[in-house]
Amino acid sequence: MATSKLYPPIIAGTIPPFYADKRTGAVFITVPFSMNRVVSNQEVYGFSLKIRDAETDTLYGIINATTTDWEQDGENSSVIFKLNKTPEGQAVAEKIKLGKFYKI
Fold first, then answer.
1. Is residue 56 part of a domain?
2. pLDDT surpassing 80 at residue 79
3. Number of Cα atoms under 13 Å in the Cβ half of residue 91
4. Is 5 part of any domain?
5. Burial class (CB in 10 A: 0-12, 13-18, 19+), 75
């Protein structure tokens, strides 16, 4: 019987800010990470990002990304979360404000 594993990637340091595409208005965040060594690339089906207010710990939402949004480069991999891609992401994009701090 096959089982699913949850071995999170290793995220170190400061995460870059959210940014918006001036042409389309799409909101993105790119999260750099290193793969957990017990997981092969073929075992990764997607990524999730929880966004919380840094002061109140209020959960603004959970954004999902697929492996097509993943830049694979071993130690220097990254995943791009597109907030305007889904209704859930759009709701989060409307809540985040310039100059505020968030936990992911």
1. yes
2. yes
3. 10
4. no
5. exposed
> Greater confidence, 84 or 62?
62
Whether 32 is in a domain gets the answer yes
User: Helix (H) and strand (E) counts for the chain?
Assistant: 1, 7
Give the pLDDT of residue 59. Answer: 92
61/40 Cα distance (integer angstroms): 28
Q: What is the mean pLDDT of the chain?
A: 79
Residue 43 is assigned to a structural domain of this protein: yes
How many residues are given for the chain? 104
Whole-number Å distance between alpha carbons of 83 and 7: 24
Domain limits for position 71: 19-103
Q: Which residue has the tokens 């042409």?
A: 23
